[in-house]
């Protein structure tokens, strides 16, 4: 079944204790697009994405993948469905090399009952990935603890690609990077799009979004404000939307949420 | 620029220190470097090796088990009582002992994962519980004179090698393969490296943690069999203290206190380092009790080195 949207989230609600982090949020991600997710601190960007990746459970709401309803209860479920999230704090293993980071939790197995790891096949595959992604990592046996922020992001991307993810969620990928590395990474994200992935990009850096995204989704106080077409808007439009929201929204409730999460 | 890369050094440091120590003691005492003495060191330490290997599962997985000493105490008296009080067949007594040890490990795993408290405190608590049970069940009695079949474990020989030495060797080889070649071993190291990331990678971290404590309990029980067979006697005070030596040996052998790192050959070298130290100090006439002080200092030094190494890695990551 092929619908216009690869991911649809409908009526997502989520509270933490007494604080409503998300209220009735709808999101539609088109096949093969890069969609920026923007909003102030505490707007609910990460929460919404973590619900899609299974790190959080929504209180209510539905998720559709390729038009079929899916139930995502944990990160394992989302991985199985082809949704990968690259976390802001980079869920990498500093004690391991690139290959083992890429395959952590989803090792290529061999032998009786699949008890043994196929190290050769994994490092070969990791090497191919590094080549395909055109990233500057010298060897798959390099330890990630010794890598720069940009290289680490690339390892995280390679991890997502290795498992034929269809949807990739990136949480502030450029936040900790210098200018050169950030632009390299944005290039990589474009490559990923060309490889057919649909990408959700959480970011505070609006220029990044304007540079590579197709559309931008604006959240404020846990509510969807609007989805803007990047080709139709300016930096100012997006910032205004983030700060003020749509006229009908705004108000005190958002303030409360802001204080609690900021 | 020219920052020293310690990681290579760390891998072999323990072997190097072991050799230096052996050289030192061979100068200090003519009896040290004799076949007989070295054979003694090996055969006296088989059960420490087995405990340390068991503990490595927990430590590499990012946990700690301080209760292995009293696990040994309890498993020891139960196994001994099964043989000398209830006159059960040796194989049944051993099966009971191994099943009990595995269960104690399972209990630790369930507690650590259910209550989500520091494993250091959790296993300190269970340790005391095991101690109490051990003394109550045994009424603080000593049980000695086991059947020959049971003593075969340490007195017997296969292919000219003492059975317990062979057993320790097989365990060391199998577990080394497990860490380097199996999905379980890979995931354990992954879990120890970053638990949250492991969870987000879809690894069932709770099940892994329960498994590592259970495996530790199983190996601890095997070690207990060797320990009481070698002594041909046991009471509730047999076992406690082992946890300290196994823990120190593991850390000296490069198993990180923070998890995610370690290899079995170095761990074995760590056990021998402590053993050689005790033995050598005794032969050289430096006193038996001074070795406790030295062991404590070694533990401190090894942990400090581990921590220092981590800081270097962290700095390199920032500036890299």
Would you summarize the structure shown here?
Chain A is α/β, with parallel strands linked by helices and 262 residues long.
Q: What does the secondary structure layout of this molecule look like, with pairings?
A:
The complex is a heterodimer of chains A (262) and B (320).
Chain A: E1 5-16, E2 19-30, E3 34-38, H1 45-53, E4 60-65, E5 68-70, H2 75-80, E6 83-86, H3 98-103, E7 109-110, E8 116-117, H4 119-132, H5 149-162, E9 167-171, H6 179-194, E10 198-202, H7 206-212, E11 215-220, E12 223-229, H8 235-244, H9 252-261
Parallel strand pairs in A: 3-10, 3-11, 6-9, 9-10
Antiparallel strand pairs in A: 1-2, 1-4, 4-5, 7-8, 11-12
Helix pairs in contact in A: 4-5, 5-6
Chain B: H1 6-28, H2 35-44, H3 46-60, H4 68-84, H5 90-115, H6 119-138, E1 143-144, H7 148-155, E2 157-158, E3 161-162, H8 163-181, H9 183-193, H10 195-200, H11 205-231, E4 233-234, H12 242-252, H13 264-283, H14 290-319
Antiparallel strand pairs in B: 1-4, 2-3
Helix pairs in contact in B: 1-13, 3-8, 3-11, 3-12, 3-13, 4-5, 4-6, 4-11, 5-6, 5-11, 7-11, 8-9, 9-11, 12-13, 12-14
Structure description:
The complex is a heterodimer of chains A (262) and B (320). Chain A contains 9 helices and 12 strands. Chain A has helices at residues 45-53, 75-80, 98-103, 119-132, 149-162, 179-194, 206-212, 235-244, 252-261; strands spanning 5-16, 19-30, 34-38, 60-65, 68-70, 83-86, 109-110, 116-117, 167-171, 198-202, 215-220, 223-229. In chain A, helix 5 (149-162) runs parallel beside helix 6. By secondary structure, chain B is mostly helical. Chain B has one domain (41-313): ABC transporter involved in vitamin B12 uptake, BtuC (Orthogonal Bundle). In chain B, 76% of the residues lie in helices and 2% in strands. Chain B contains 14 helices and 4 strands. In chain B, the strands form 2 sheets. A two-stranded antiparallel sheet of chain B has the order 1-4. In chain B, helix 4 packs antiparallel against helix 5, helix 4 (68-84) runs parallel beside helix 6 (119-138) and helix 5 (90-115) packs antiparallel against helix 6 (119-138). Chain B is globular, with a radius of gyration of 20 Å. The mean pLDDT of chain B is 90. The A-B interface holds A 53, 55, 74-76, 79-80, 85, 87, 91-96, 100, 104-107, 109, 114-117, 119, 145-148 and B 181-184, 186-187, 189-190, 192-194, 196-204, 256, 260-261, 313-314, 316-317, 320.
């Amino acid at each position: 079944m092929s619908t216009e949207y690869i991911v649809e989230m409908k009526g997502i609600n989520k509270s933490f204790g007494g604080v409503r982090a998300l209220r009735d949020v709808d999101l539609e991600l088109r096949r093969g697009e890069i969609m920026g997710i923007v909003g102030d601190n505490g707007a609910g960007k990460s929460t919404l994405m973590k619900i899609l990746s299974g790190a959080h459970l929504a209180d209510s709401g539905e998720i559709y993948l390729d038009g079929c309803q899916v139930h995502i209860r944990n990160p394992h479920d989302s991985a199985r469905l082809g949704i990968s999230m690259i976390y802001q704090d980079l869920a990498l293993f500093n004690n391991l090399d690139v290959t083992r980071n890429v395959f952590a939790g989803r090792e290529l197995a061999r032998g009786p009952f699949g008890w043994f790891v196929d190290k050769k096949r994994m490092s070969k595959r990791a090497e191919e990935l590094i080549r395909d992604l055109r990233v500057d990592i010298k060897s798959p046996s390099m330890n990630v603890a010794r890598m720069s922020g940009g290289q680490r992001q690339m390892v995280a991307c390679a991890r997502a690609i290795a498992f034929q993810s269809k949807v990739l969620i990136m949480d502030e990928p450029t936040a900790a990077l210098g200018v050169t590395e950030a632009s390299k990474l944005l290039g990589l994200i474009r490559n990923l799009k060309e490889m057919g992935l649909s990408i959700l990009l959480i970011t505070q850096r609006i220029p990044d979004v304007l540079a590579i995204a197709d559309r931008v989704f604006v959240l404020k106080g846990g509510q969807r404000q609007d989805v803007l077409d990047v080709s139709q808007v300016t930096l100012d439009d997006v910032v205004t939307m983030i700060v003020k929201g749509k006229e009908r929204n705004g108000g005190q409730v958002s303030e409360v949420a802001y204080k609690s999460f900021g | 620029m020219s920052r020293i890369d310690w990681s290579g050094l760390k891998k072999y440091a323990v072997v190097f220190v072991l050799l230096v120590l052996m050289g030192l003691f061979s100068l200090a005492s003519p009896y040290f470097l004799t076949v007989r003495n070295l054979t003694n060191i090996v055969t006296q330490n088989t059960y420490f090796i087995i405990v340390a290997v068991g503990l490595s599962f927990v430590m590499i997985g990012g946990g700690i088990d301080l209760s292995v000493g009293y696990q040994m105490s309890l498993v020891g008296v139960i196994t001994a009582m099964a043989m000398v009080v209830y006159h059960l067949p040796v194989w049944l007594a051993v099966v009971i002992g191994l099943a009990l040890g595995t269960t104690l490990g399972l209990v630790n795993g369930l507690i650590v994962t259910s209550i989500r408290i520091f494993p250091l405190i959790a296993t300190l608590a269970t340790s005391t519980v095991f101690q109490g049970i051990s003394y109550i069940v045994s009424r603080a009695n000593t049980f000695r004179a086991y059947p020959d079949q049971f003593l075969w474990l340490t007195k017997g020989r296969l292919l000219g090698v003492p059975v317990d030495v062979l057993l320790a060797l097989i365990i060391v080889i199998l577990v080394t393969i497990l860490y380097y070649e199996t999905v379980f071993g890979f995931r354990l190291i992954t879990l120890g490296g970053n638990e949250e990331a492991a969870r987000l990678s879809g690894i069932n971290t709770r099940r892994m943690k329960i498994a590592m404590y259970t495996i530790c309990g199983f190996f601890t029980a095997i070690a207990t069999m060797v320990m009481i067979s070698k002594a041909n006697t046991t009471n509730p005070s047999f076992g406690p203290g082992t946890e300290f030596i196994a823990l120190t040996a593991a850390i000296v052998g490069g198993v990180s206190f923070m998890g995610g790192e370690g290899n079995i050959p170095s761990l074995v070298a760590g056990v021998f380092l402590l053993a050689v130290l005790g033995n050598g100090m005794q032969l050289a006439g430096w006193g038996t009790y001074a070795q406790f002080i030295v062991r404590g200092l070694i533990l401190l030094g090894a942990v400090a080195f581990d921590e220092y190494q981590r800081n270097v890695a962290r700095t390199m990551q920032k500036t890299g």
